[in-house]
């Protein structure tokens, strides 16, 4: 298959993408035609720089394509997308004619039956693999929904028997953990080894040491202050010569562990934790705009979200208190610049120079108020990884950064709380409704003993 699949993308205004994205393909398996329909979350416009690409509603777009492929005599239809598990379930229920939905985006771990001992404990089962959704006009059809966690940890394995009308009749399977028991493809491994030798000398270069665990874990950095966020933003502010810096938590993908290699930090560790290759720029905005930015940081904050948004900002040079039980746009209770005893409240009319990734400076994660209201913009050309290396060499060995920058109060779970085993508990119906692992409450992941 050449190109990509997405039925809800309109590239009319981006000529460079013309012909490169198809809404679907039809494959012949034995004597049976199978349609595979692609889709992607419309939130992509907030998560990336999409230019003039128009992203449409998944459900309406998939319905249109299902009708088209059925007219071509296809009755086995698979939707393949990247919109998140909850949206996958909604698609399965509301789009008539789908047989299987293969999803992603939320890295949801599904498993049928009891988890075997070789499954890592941190991989928390959310629901059955596949999750069976009653679909069709009268709910008599069955649509199978699958996801396989994320980051290439598992390979999905779903075996389905269809009846003569293309409806799922029987099914079985579970994700395959890609550990050392799974043989590697020799041809592919040879190719990987070839490239690995070319980059190993650079990636193995030691750039510093850490005396403390610098935590960049997910979801921690997406719901509260984390030490890796503090480290990165301190580096950004210091190297750019400004007092304030922030970064979207979705940019952070790893930690520095002093228990590994005696705390040695290599270029590989840097690139693993910060893989995006953004430049770190300096933007001047007013205090009023800064407050809008900080409000947007917690706009979608939910205390029961198993996979929080990456727009939550980690900061340096700011001391913030949020109350997420308050309405959107009114959650920033207090905001101060400075450190220690020299705190000063953010002033609406004051100008603030802020170091941030180019991704945010250009309005990524829907921070559109930044480019829309920028007073001045300095594109430094300084890559984030190079900046961290330069800062690390000055701060070697790395200590735990000063904390207590962000406080998140309140609870907007809407009648839900967390059980001792990590289950989501609906206080209205007095029952557990979904296994989430540890679920967030008051800005932290806690087991409350319900």
How is this structure best described in words?
- The protein has 450 residues and is an alpha+beta fold.
- It folds into three domains: 4-177, Metallo-dependent phosphatases (Purple Acid Phosphatase, chain A, domain 2), CATH 3.60.21; 198-409, 5'-nucleotidase,  domain 2 (Alpha-Beta Complex), CATH 3.90.780; 416-445, no CATH class.
- Helices cover 22% and strands 28% of the residues.
- It is built from eleven helices and 30 strands.
- The chain has a six-stranded mixed β-sheet, covered by helices on one side. A five-stranded mixed β-sheet has the order 19-16-23-18-24. The chain has a four-stranded mixed β-sheet with strand order 22-21-20-25, covered by helices on one side.
- Strand 9 and strand 10 (141-146) form a beta hairpin.
- Helix 6 (227-240) packs across helix 11.
- The protein is globular.
- The N and C termini lie far apart (50 Å).
Domains, number: 3
User: Strand percentage, roughly?
Assistant: 25-35%
Rg over CA atoms, rounded to whole Å, is 24 Å
What are the low-pLDDT stretches, counting only 5+ consecutive residues below 50?
415-450
N- to C-terminal distance: 50 Å
- Please, what is the oligomeric state? single chain
Which of globular, elongated, flat, extended, rod-shaped describes the shape? globular
State the CATH topology of the largest domain.
5'-nucleotidase,  domain 2
Specify the CATH class of the largest domain.
Alpha Beta
What is the CATH architecture assignment of the largest domain? Alpha-Beta Complex
Q: How is the main sheet built?
A: 6 strands, mixed
> What's the rounded overall pLDDT mean?
88
Q: Which strand order spans the largest sheet, edge to edge or round the barrel? A: 4-5-7-8-10-9
Structural class: alpha+beta
**Number of distinct helices:** 11
CATH superfamily heading of the largest domain? 5'-Nucleotidase, C-terminal domain
Q: Helical proportion?
A: 10-25%
Number of DSSP strand runs: 30
């Amino acid at each position: 298959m050449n190109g990509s699949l997405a039925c809800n993308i309109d590239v009319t205004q981006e000529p460079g993408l013309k012909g490169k994205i198809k809404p679907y393909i039809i494959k012949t398996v034995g004597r049976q035609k199978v349609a595979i329909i692609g889709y992607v979350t419309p939130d992509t416009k907030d998560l990336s720089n999409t230019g003039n690409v128009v992203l449409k509603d998944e459900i309406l777009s998939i319905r249109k394509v299902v009708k088209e492929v059925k007219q071509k005599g296809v009755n086995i239809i698979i939707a393949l997308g990247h919109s998140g598990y909850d949206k996958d379930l909604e698609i399965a229920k509301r789009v008539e004619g789908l047989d299987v939905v293969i999803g992603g985006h939320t890295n949801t771990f599904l498993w049928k039956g009891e988890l075997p001992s070789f499954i890592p404990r941190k991989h928390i089962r959310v629901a059955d693999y596949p999750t069976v959704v009653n679909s069709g006009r009268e709910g008599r059809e069955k649509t199978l929904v699958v996801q396989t966690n994320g980051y290439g940890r598992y390979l999905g394995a779903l075996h389905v028997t269809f009846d003569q009308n293309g409806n799922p009749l029987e099914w079985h399977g579970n994700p395959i953990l890609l550990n050392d028991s799974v043989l590697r493809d020799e041809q592919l491994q040879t190719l990987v080894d070839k490239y690995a030798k070319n980059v190993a000398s650079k990636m193995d270069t030691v750039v510093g040491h850490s005396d403390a665990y610098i935590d960049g874990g997910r979801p921690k950095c997406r719901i509260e202050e984390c030490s890796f966020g503090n480290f990165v933003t301190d580096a950004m502010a210091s190297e750019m010569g400004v007092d304030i810096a922030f970064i979207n938590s979705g940019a952070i993908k790893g930690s520095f562990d002093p228990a590994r290699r005696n705390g040695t930090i290599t270029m590989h560790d840097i690139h693993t934790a910060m893989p995006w290759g953004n430049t770190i720029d300096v933007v001047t905005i007013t205090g009023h705009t800064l407050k809008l930015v900080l409000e947007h940081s917690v706009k979608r904050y939910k205390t029961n979200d198993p996979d929080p948004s990456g727009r939550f900002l980690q900061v340096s040079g700011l001391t913030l208190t949020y109350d997420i039980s308050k309405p959107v746009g009114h959650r920033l209770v207090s905001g101060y610049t400075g450190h220690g005893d020299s705190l000063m409240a953010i002033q609406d009319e004051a100008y603030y120079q802020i170091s941030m990734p180019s991704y945010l400076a250009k309005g990524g994660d829907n921070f559109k108020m930044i480019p829309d209201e920028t007073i001045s913009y300095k594109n430094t050309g300084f890559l984030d990884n190079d900046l961290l290396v330069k800062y690390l060499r000055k701060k070697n060995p790395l200590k735990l950064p000063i904390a207590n920058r962000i406080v998140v109060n309140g609870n907007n779970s809407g009648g839900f709380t967390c059980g001792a085993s990590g289950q989501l508990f609906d206080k209205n119906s007095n029952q557990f409704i979904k296994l989430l692992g540890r679920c967030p409450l008051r800005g932290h992941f806690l087991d409350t003993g319900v």
